[in-house]
From TrEMBL, chains A, B:
UniProt-listed CDD domains: BCAT_beta_family
Entries under Gene3D superfamilies matching the protein: 3.30.470.10, D-amino Acid Aminotransferase, subunit A, domain 2 (3.20.10.10)
Record-linked InterPro entries: Aminotrans_IV, Aminotrans_IV_CS, Aminotransferase-like, B_amino_transII, BCAT-like_C, BCAT-like_N, BCAT_family
Taxonomic path: Bacteria, Bacillati, Bacillota, Bacilli, Bacillales
Catalytic reaction(s) noted: L-valine + 2-oxoglutarate = 3-methyl-2-oxobutanoate + L-glutamate; L-isoleucine + 2-oxoglutarate = (S)-3-methyl-2-oxopentanoate + L-glutamate; L-leucine + 2-oxoglutarate = 4-methyl-2-oxopentanoate + L-glutamate
EC number: 2.6.1.42
Pathway named in the protein's UniProt entry: Amino-acid biosynthesis; L-valine biosynthesis; L-valine from pyruvate: step 4/4; Amino-acid biosynthesis; L-leucine biosynthesis; L-leucine from 3-methyl-2-oxobutanoate: step 4/4; Amino-acid biosynthesis; L-isoleucine biosynthesis; L-isoleucine from 2-oxobutanoate: step 4/4
GO molecular-function term, one example from the UniProt record: L-isoleucine-2-oxoglutarate transaminase activity
Protein name per the record: Branched-chain-amino-acid aminotransferase
Organism: Gracilibacillus halophilus YIM-C55.5
Length: 357, 357
């Protein structure tokens, strides 16, 4: 049996599926999960699809102590004619391996990772919801499992995929959010792990998020960890600004996550001949554009919300309203086009979509 | 039954205990563990000592994805007359709560935490080894357990304590190590989580550690994340330098862990009337002291090794040998005094030691 043969053990019972208007995000999980083990002598081995079940882990497992873990997030979409498709899963597997490298975790076979995801989604295909805006969120992750308290990379790992049906992000079309610029806490710094999708980045973001939520802001806008001047990301999204007809976004600098949605936005803008530039952007600069009436739109981009328009940006006691707090034209066009491609109602000029069986 | 009553379920079997010359670090675990649960409605509840056993966790548990977790490390020492004692456990519980605060984890009752540790060590007292230099390592940790993929603090947690008999850190007296100054990767930055004892800091340190190990260095010396100029820590230890008779150590700045050993070293030096200063120290400055023949000693300080003399420091292609690669006088005096207090053979002028039953 090859290391690429996936054993399937079907669940004896099917869990009840939640109603499509009760899905929210990441709360319900499907009947099955994918697991594969790694050891130094066998490499990645024993890939299997099994009933969704608790994991049994020694309390000394390294993941609990030293956080050596990486993850990904993508979605499966149901088309109008009932097919199921993934959006650019190769980008997620590439990023997973870049994260693995930073965290000293053995790399996975990217093609096989995509196959495993497809196979699992196929087994649980009845869980892909069909109400507008709903999807099946896919969470691949790798954890270090060796029971050892020395600080060094683990010698054993598990690669796991779980699935969660998720609701429409917006109840009624896309809706601008209020964002606060964070100038005390830092998410990531050059030389750190910001470019990797690893647990510690999210743990360190909770405090700032909690503090701005108390003041009524949806997310924080992170500045760079060195000078606290340059814009990095918005919550768990990459960020874009439209200024005088040009779209600008922070250049990838080692501390910003390389979003799949970010890349898709840039490709679409180029395709549409809308000028788009990746460069260093200071918060002061954005403030000046706003003062001069040149800041036309701002939006976050990520798998969860696709495009999240920013209606207000708070910085150093100033409240900057953007586009009268309304969704901008480019934001809407990007949202409609990307979701259109994902759900199979728009042409897919870049061959981003991958069909499941 | 009060929330402070610890239920004890004894293990039916006793595991064989490893030979005292085969202990190494963090590899063997005792017969029992302590667990306590947290939920929003009950707070911390159901403290119990149970047989050491795997944990059953939903694969969506937040700790695997967003790394919301903190830990501590301290030791129990066996005295010559057979008693068991802890070293400043209150400092570890204080730090655990400071880490909790940064990671948005509900705080624990520090007094009760110490009681829980004492109770568990008492149950497994036969596991406290008595060969010279050996001890029982104590690992309290808290993990976020809610099965939910949204990025926000968990609503449920477990506080766990496990125990591991550990060998003498040095086979034959203390032994100087070679350290490489890290100028690419960063452990922590102002505004980040460096001051907290949380998993992500250790995950992010693995890569640099792996790279210097290939070149024959034991650990890295971390520089600050902002300017990469100022000295922070050495591996998992705080760092001290003796220059012209004065001992200097980096001041606590938010990105350095507040070591218990560091604090003990500072108190002892003051007690001995040896000048000691906490301040910002650049690597350039240390290099100049070395060039001028003023750098007399350098050492790391932490629970695992107590004092770890630095025999060589590599920076920008320069190899600085310190004290002819030998253990310095202050390093040895600190090591002998602190371990003497820990094992009950030296007077304990600061009442650092706490006896277990
Ligand atoms: C920190 C961070 N930035 C950006 C993104 C957006 O990346 P993607 O478009 O691949 O979802 C995410 C989430 O996925 C994220 O966690
Ligand atoms: C990053 C780091 N710095 C310093 C220390 C030293 O702290 P302590 O003396 O409390 O063991 C430790 C380890 O415990 C550590 O992990």
């Amino acid at each position: 049996m090859s290391q690429y043969t996936i054993t399937v053990i079907k669940s004896e019972e099917e869990k009840p599926k939640p109603a499509s208007d009760d899905l929210s995000f990441g709360r319900y999980f499907t009947d099955h999960m994918f697991i594969q083990d790694y050891s130094e002598d066998k490499g990645w081995h024993n890939p299997r699809i099994v009933p969704y079940q608790p994991m049994m882990l020694d309390p000394a497992s390294m993941v609990f102590h030293y956080g050596q873990t990486v993850f990904e997030g993508l979605k499966a979409y149901r088309t109008e004619d009932g097919h199921i498709q993934l959006f650019r899963p190769n980008k997620n597997m590439e990023r997973l391996n870049r994260s693995n490298d930073r965290l000293c975790i053995p790399s996975i076979d990217e093609e096989f990772g995509i196959d495993a995801i497809k196979h699992l989604v196929h087994v649980d295909h009845e869980w892909v919801p069909d109400a507008p805006g709903t999807s099946l969120y896919i969470r691949p992750f790798i954890i270090s499992t060796e029971a050892y308290l020395g600080v060094r990379p683990s010698t054993t790992y598990q690669f796991i995929v779980i699935l969660s049906p998720v609701g429409a992000y917006y109840d009624a079309g896309i809706d601008p959010v209020k964002i606060a610029v964070e100038d005390e806490y830092v998410r990531a710094v050059r030389g750190g792990t910001g470019e990797a999708k690893t647990a510690g980045n999210y743990a360190s973001s909770l405090k700032a998020q909690e503090l701005v939520a108390e003041k009524g802001y949806a997310q924080v806008l992170w500045l760079d960890g060195v000078e606290k001047k340059y814009i990095e990301e918005v919550g768990s999204m990459n960020v874009f600004f439209k200024v005088n007809g040009e779209v600008i976004t922070p250049a990838l600098n080692g501390s910003i996550l390389q979003g799949v949605t970010r890349d898709s936005v840039i490709q679409l803008l180029k395709h549409w001949d809308i000028p788009v530039t990746e460069r260093r952007i200071s918060m002061e600069e954005i403030y000046q554009y706003h003062q001069n009436g040149e800041l036309e739109e701002a939006f976050g981009a990520g798998t969860a919300a696709v495009i999240s328009p920013i209606g207000e940006l708070a910085w150093k006691g100033e409240q900057m309203e953007i586009n009268q707090g309304e969704t901008g034209e480019i934001s809407r066009r990007l949202y409609d086009t990307i979701t259109g491609i994902q759900y199979g109602v728009e042409k897919d000029p870049f061959h981003w979509v991958v069909r499941v069986k």
